[in-house]
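#struct-pred
JK: can someone run the complex with zinc ion? inputs below
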Amino acid sequence: MQAAILNEKKQLELRDLPRPKIVPGGVLIKVVASGLCGADLKMIDKGHKALTYPRVLGHEITGIIVESETKEFNKGDRVQIAPGIVCGECYFCQQGITNHCQEIEIFGFTVDGGFREYIAIPEKAIKAGVLNIIPDNLSFSEAVFAEPLACCINGLELAQFTENESVLIIGAGPIGCLKAMLAKSYGAKKIILADKLAKRLDFAASLELDSLINVEEKAWHDIVNKATDGRGVDLIVLASSHVSVDHSLTGLLNKRGKILLFSGFADGKENLEIDGNLFHYGEMALIGAYGCTVKQNKKALKLMAKQKIAVKKLITDQISLNEIFKGVEKARNKETIKVIIKENEGGNG
Ligand SMILES: [Zn+2]
Ligand SMILES: [Zn+2]
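RT: done, structure tokens with the ligand placed:
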């Protein structure tokens, strides 16, 4: 069985591994499609806070159950695997904040993930709720978006974003686009998507948002202000690790405006320049968001099944596991939006 393993930073390798065996109470899954995520690129190029080596990458995983030793799931079930295996018992799990589980294991981070042909899911993970039946009207490739969409849901929930609000999303990569689509499904008052790459903005034109802005243009702040009648936006989402939070950015916020720190910051960008008085008098807030809960993953699948978010649009590349180096290179050069890796053929794709 082929697998893409990261031995250490910058050491990605395709290797032949023995096919995993089903464990008592678990299931064996033939992986059909998985998503290449910005976090994978980060792991490959720079390492990642939550990663241990060597690791089969891939945390956006879908497939078909080929063997089952649990009553809840049957052979032939089409499933999406939520990556977080949570304990269900710690303080955070009890609060429903499962992404902060103190005992969390994550496929593709601390246990081997989905960039391989087969994956065995242990009983503990099934009990933690990682397996989700893919609704009939969603393909495997679409269901891959459940996890990233769930992370976007987590962000907008933490920001308490509502339909009466305007949002400026900085970064028109896969996550920025997904966030914009999610905000649209909320019925957001105004959605502005910004990036410095014209090709990304060209792609985003198909999302039919209120405004697309190239931040390389000198007057881009004026465009945001004009679009919000001079008041500024209610929410700024940082969907790029290269944005500087400084006075010019916070100057774009409406009263009670919020900045959602969705991406980790690139080295040197992590210290933010904030005018405390602006935030005090303007009742503004800075909010972090990382990962998603078990519940949000299920919510994301439901939202897609209701055809509220047409994620298919975001798939620019479908490659086989053999072509992973090419896919990584293209994604690194930002020539893609979403890369789907097809490990095996399966039903309706
Ligand atoms: Zn991801
Ligand atoms: Zn826990």
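RT: quick notes.
The two ends are 20 Å apart (CA to CA).
The chain has a mean pLDDT of 96.
JK: thanks, will look after standup
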